[in-house]
Design goal:
This protein is mainly β. 2% of the residues lie in helices and 41% in strands. The protein contains two helices and 51 strands. It has a seven-stranded antiparallel beta sheet with strand order 16-17-18-19-20-21-22, with no helix packed on it. Strands 29, 32, 33, 34, 37, 38 and 39 form a seven-stranded mixed beta sheet that branches. β18 and β19 form a beta hairpin. The chain is elongated.
Length: 609
């Protein structure tokens, strides 16, 4: 569970410093060694998404994201015997909450190709590049059935602009088409141009159903390292015949057509040069009549292109090296000017060559097809059930937000936001202040609500959750925690009073008997005077708790000098105490009580002379 510990202690910093606007697109990337990452800021930074139960090390097979719901992901990293001899397990995962939780199933074949139907997202296509062919699921990957296509595949390409239309290209050079969401298939009888043996991908023109674009390979350019390169092809009769685009040479992984402006892009690698790992990308703005090479800023590796769903001038290219031993690593190329120039964003540079990206998906954050669902409402520090007025609350559930974000860029003139990326929370009919959002968890500051039963709801771009019944209390004291269930405690100079070794690379000293400490907490109830709501606590005044709490360490009562809301923060209490001089060295339970309510047990403080 994500806590507020460090973020709350730096509340003043968040209010003071600016925050760069996040992208309207969420990116998911899978690296060569089977690690999954997401980015919400246009590939500037990446966060690892854990796949519970996945083998380590792993190897990437396939990644797909629901175009209608940015929180629904599919990942395959099997079979494990590629890196774990003797383990035939096919590790297939599905998440419906942006990677917060996962379910695992076993398709009949390892997935090397995955695609979610853009018009009916319960339909998922799975393909293999070896024996097995194409499989189809109509229940979001829970069960699978074989299709009539049984040959090894090269690509699965749903038509995003025509419901039910899907193209599949096979290793034997055939292209198959379905117009009924993959239930039945017909073979397009088109003959490929001389030298082309097969198509690697197919893209349909958004404005003309008879116009198709393809990337192909064969023996077009001769022998040696160039034996398997061809280029781009086009069909104007729905795939009955194909023509080579002679002005474009190279090995292209994919071709994409932007419905917003008609621009056509293709990405791959240029094996016509001496070094067989030069990235290649081309663009046409006149319907394929002329093409421009767009590789400024690109260096090595193959570049499969993705369009940004929100911004037509933004493009992404996965820097995946087809020759795995080359390079220092990979990452994502990003262009914000329609391919005129590119910059490289490493996904995880600590992975070295394993930073090669073998799967990339760009999905709109607002693409969320289902309403949120709340499963838990608890104190954000102690995790006890319920809500305390004007204190921090954690909500857990599914599809609670279309992205991961916090309020750093949403505090305007000191006013705390009640909405963040379209996510709103109400408690007892009053708006909460939304601090942190993610698909699986929200952290909010509760509004001023009376004690008693309270209804909690979450509203997102996908809809409104069912009412969640909770209980509001006047008091619900709880300390924020550091690792090892240690209380968040600082000295008067704000140095950490915590066991040595708690934080890697940071020198920390445990508390000493007789020392004065500040404990950081929430839920300590009303203050006199009452602090203004909806803004940070003013630094010009003092807002002590209505009554003084008691604090015990190892059942020994500590001297409490006072408790008050922390200036410049919100819902964050500082309790100043003196560690009892008689406490001996060790990790001892610490507990507080106020207004007849006690903080949770199991919290400790480390003492050392």
């Amino acid at each position: 569970m994500k806590t507020l510990t460090v973020r709350l202690l730096s509340f003043c910093v968040l209010l003071t410093f600016g925050y760069e606007a996040e992208s309207a697109t969420i990116l998911y990337a899978m690296t060569r060694n089977g690690l999954l990452y997401s980015s919400v800021d246009g590939a500037k930074s990446w966060q690892n998404i854990v796949l519970p139960g996945a083998p380590a090390p792993a190897i990437f097979s396939a990644l797909a994201v629901d175009p209608q719901d940015s929180s629904t992901l599919y990942v395959d990293i099997g079979p494990a015997d590629k890196v774990h001899p003797g383990d035939p397990t096919n590790y297939f995962f599905r998440s419906s909450d942006g990677g917060a939780t996962w379910s695992q199933s076993s398709p009949p074949q390892p997935a090397e190709l995955l695609a979610v139907d853009p018009a009916s997202s319960n339909i998922v296509y799975l393909g293999t590049t070896a024996a097995g062919g194409l499989f189809r699921s109509t229940d979001s990957g829970a069960t699978w059935s074989a299709t009539s296509i049984t040959t090894p595949l090269k690509a699965i390409n749903p038509d995003a602009h025509r419901a039910g239309v899907v193209y599949v290209s096979s290793n034997d050079g055939k292209v198959y088409k379905s117009t009924d969401f993959g239930a039945t298939w017909t073979s397009l009888a088109g003959s490929l141009p001389s030298g082309f043996n097969r198509l690697l991908s197919v893209a349909a023109d958004p404005t003309n159903s008879s116009a198709l674009w393809g990337t192909g390979e064969g023996s077009c350019l001769g022998a040696g390292n160039l034996a398997f390169i061809c280029g781009l092809v086009q069909s104007t009769d729905g795939g009955k015949t194909w023509q080579a685009i002679g002005s474009v040479k190279g090995w292209f992984e994919n071709v994409v057509v932007d419905s917003r402006n008609g621009d056509i892009y293709a990405g791959g690698q240029d094996d016509t040069v001496a070094v067989a790992s030069q990235a290649l990308a081309v663009k046409s703005t006149d319907g394929g009549k002329t093409w421009t090479k767009i590789t400024t800023g690109m260096s090595k590796f193959s570049a499969a292109l993705q369009l940004d769903p929100e911004t037509a001038t933004t493009l992404y290219a996965e820097q995946a090296n087809l020759i795995a031993d080359l390079g220092p690593g990979g990452g994502i190329y990003v262009s914000t000017n329609g391919g005129t120039s590119w910059t490289l964003s490493p996904v995880d540079s600590s992975q070295g060559p394993n930073d090669l990206v073998f799967g990339l998906a760009a999905v709109s954050k607002t693409a969320q097809g289902s309403p949120p669902a709340i499963t838990t409402v608890v104190n954000a520090a102690g995790f006890q059930p319920g809500v305390v007025a004007n204190s921090w609350v954690t909500l857990q559930g599914t599809i609670l937000a279309p992205t991961t974000d916090d309020w750093r860029h949403s505090i305007v003139n000191g006013n705390l936001p009640t909405s963040l990326d379209g996510v709103n929370v109400t408690m007892g009919g009053k708006a909460a202040y939304v601090y942190y959002i993610s698909p699986g968890q929200l952290n909010v500051l509760a509004p001023d609500i009376p004690a008693g039963p309270v209804t909690v709801t979450v509203t997102t771009p996908g809809g409104v959750s069912a009412n969640f019944a909770a209980t509001a209390s006047l008091y619900g004291p709880a300390f924020f925690l550091w690792p090892g269930s240690q209380v968040v405690a600082t000295r008067q100079d704000y140095s950490y009073a915590v066991k040595a070794g708690t934080f890697a690379g940071v020198t920390t000293v445990p508390a000493k008997p007789g020392e004065v400490l500040i404990l950081w907490a929430t839920g300590f109830g009303p203050t006199i005077p009452a602090a203004p709501s909806g803004v940070s606590v003013p630094a010009s005044g003092s807002y002590p708790t209505a009554s003084v709490p008691t604090v015990t360490i190892d059942n020994i009562t500590a001297v409490v000098y006072g408790a008050a809301l922390a200036p410049g923060s919100a819902g964050l209490y500082q309790i100043a105490i003196q560690v009892p001089p008689t406490v001996v060295d060790g990790d001892w339970p610490i507990q507080a009580s106020i207004g007849g309510a006690q903080s949770p047990t199991g919290v400790v403080i480390s003492i050392a002379h």
